[in-house]
Structure formats: structure tokens, C-alpha cells
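In this section we walk through a basic example: taking a raw amino acid sequence and producing a predicted 3D structure, encoded as C-alpha cells. The instruction is simple. Fold the sequence below.
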Amino acid sequence: MTARLIFAWLVHLYSALGAVIAFIAILFIEQLRFQETFFLMTLAVAIDASDGTLARTARVKELLPNFDGDRLEDIIDYFNYVVVPCLFLIRANLLPSQDALWLIAFPLLASAYGFCQKQAKTADHFFLGFPSYWNIVALYLYVLRAPLWFNAFLILTLAILVFVPIRYIYPSRSPYFRSWTNTLGILWGLAILAIIYWLPQPPREIVLVSLIFPIYYVCLSLWLELRRVRLKHNESPG
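The resulting C-alpha cell sequence is shown next.
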């Protein structure tokens, strides 16, 4: 039993490392060391993607019922997926300078709301509302060098979508096309690592090809949502 308890606590420690990663990422952003920042963001995603599997293997909820691992994960995810990339958007000058501070308040507030919703993750493993992938948004805005007005418009639009109850797939636990989605996700992750390696000017071809997965993710999520709404409508009486 002691070994199992130690393993369970080690899993929580593994998750908690995300807080350290977020803090170091903030220091790197302040030093304008953006390549290192994105490597740390990627490491945070890797931990977030794997700690759930470890937690289920270690049966942490059973062995440590008084420790709320979900709350720990939400705190760390808010920093790594929201605070760190929002600070990056400011320091990398990716928003109109005169409007940057009030613009960045929208994702910070919207995602704070999103993380506190009890149905932020549905019982059948979907995210409800835009799932605060601000780290991905920040990377693409940085490498694509879109006009600042477009960046501002996208940030506002995505912040609004946090409140729109569209369901987005949870890739590693999706009940639909999981193997296909995870395979594409792995290839996309490798492309992202290559893009970060070649910063600040990665090959544009790789950047454009890497957009296939985010487009696929959004299209699949919308298709499943429309399908769900149609089925619900057809099953409703009258």
C-alpha cells in the first residue's frame, strides 16, 4: 500500500510541475526568449496529455480522496493555456499597441469563466465552448505574422466562443475517430516541434501543412455538434 500511495503522490507531483513550467515560461517571455517559451509550452501540453492516464493507472482518486487533482489541473492549465500565451501576445507585439491591454482582458476573463463551468468537460468527453487553446493561437499568430487587426479580431472571436455551447472533441478521449485523430495529432505535434526548432522563421510550407490538423479538429467538432443537434431534434416529441 505504501508504494501505491507514493506512486499516487508522484503523479500529482508530475502534474504540479506544470506550475513550475509556467513560471519559467513567464521569465523567458520577459527576456524575449520566445523559442524557449514555446518549448516550455509544448512540455506543459505533454504533461497535461499524459498525467490523466497516469492518474487513472495509479488510481489517485481512490487512494488520495482528500486531494483534488482536477482542481490542481485546472489551476495549472489556466496558467499554461491562458496566462502564459496572453502575456506572450503582449510582449511579442502581436496586438495593436494602443488596444493590447483591454483586448487581452477578453481571453483572460472568458477562460476564467470557462474553467469554472462544471460542464466545461462533458460526461461523454467533449469540451463545452472554445477550450482555451490560447497557446496554439499564440504560436500561429507569431509564425504567420498576420495583420494586427486580424489578430485582435481572432482573439475577440475566440473569447466569445468560450461562451457558445458548441462541443469540441477531447482528442485523447473522443468517442469518435479517436485513433485517426490521435494519429493526426501526433504528426501535428512533430510538425509543431519542427516549427519551434526553426523559430523565428520556420519554413512556411511546414507551417501551412501543420494547419491541416487544427482545421480537421474544428471541422470534426462542428460536424459532430450538428449531428448531435439533428439527432436530438429528430428524437424530440412532435
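Looking at the output, two observations stand out. The two ends are 57 Å apart (CA to CA). The chain has a mean pLDDT of 92. In the next section we compare this with other chains.
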